[in-house]
Amino acid sequence: MRNLLGRSVIFSLVVALVLVVQPASARDDVTAIGIVAGITKSGPDFADDGTTFGLRVSPSSGKRYGIEIAVGYLEGDLLSEDGSTELDLGYEAVYLDVNETLFLNSAGKVRPVFTVGVGWAWPSLDRDVPAEELGPLYVQFESDTFTVNSGFGLDFWLGKRVYMRPEVRAKWFEVRRRDDVDFAATVGLGFTF
């Protein structure tokens, strides 16, 4: 419980810091909302490719900097030791991220975007399996966890207020306590107002 409280305090402080250090010029621009979908490759060797989708809101998507709040879902299958699907066990996670965004070439039709942020995820297995059968695998997929993510994408402006963003992101889950990093390739459609 103390560990969860400590991680929650750290998460809250990082979010507050991101909001406080946001340059004033970035707050003067537009709000953006977007939907994303794509594929994921989970870092653990025992996980197969999966899918992901979500919603991203940027309450201050400025000319150079912005804040992004992302809510999403990802899912996939766990594999047996030999790489087959004999284990027949799916996993899923719901996540919430707060990211700082850096926009380059904000005046062009194509805008490179870098993101970095922190979040929280609630992973789970699709059915109950006794912990003694899965060992560390059970712990890795049944505990809520702190996450860190970063990514790169390109905004292709389709009109004055509509853009498409192909993007790749890396996400680390603290609960795994290993160097496993998940990767996601997504395409999003965004609207500004």
The helix fraction, in percent, is 10-25%
* Rg on CA atoms, Å: 18 Å
- Which descriptor suits the 3D outline? elongated
Please report the number of helical segments. Answer: 4
Under the CATH scheme, the architecture is Beta Barrel
Provide the succession of SSEs.
HHEEEEEHHEEE
Q: How do the strands line up in the largest sheet?
A: 1-2-3-4-5-6-7-8
Core attributes:
Porin, alpha+beta, 193 residues
Description:
It is built from 4 helices and 8 strands, in the order H-H-E-E-E-E-E-H-H-E-E-E. It is an alpha+beta fold and 193 residues long. It has one domain: Porin (Beta Barrel). The termini are far apart. Mean pLDDT is 78; it is low at 19-28.
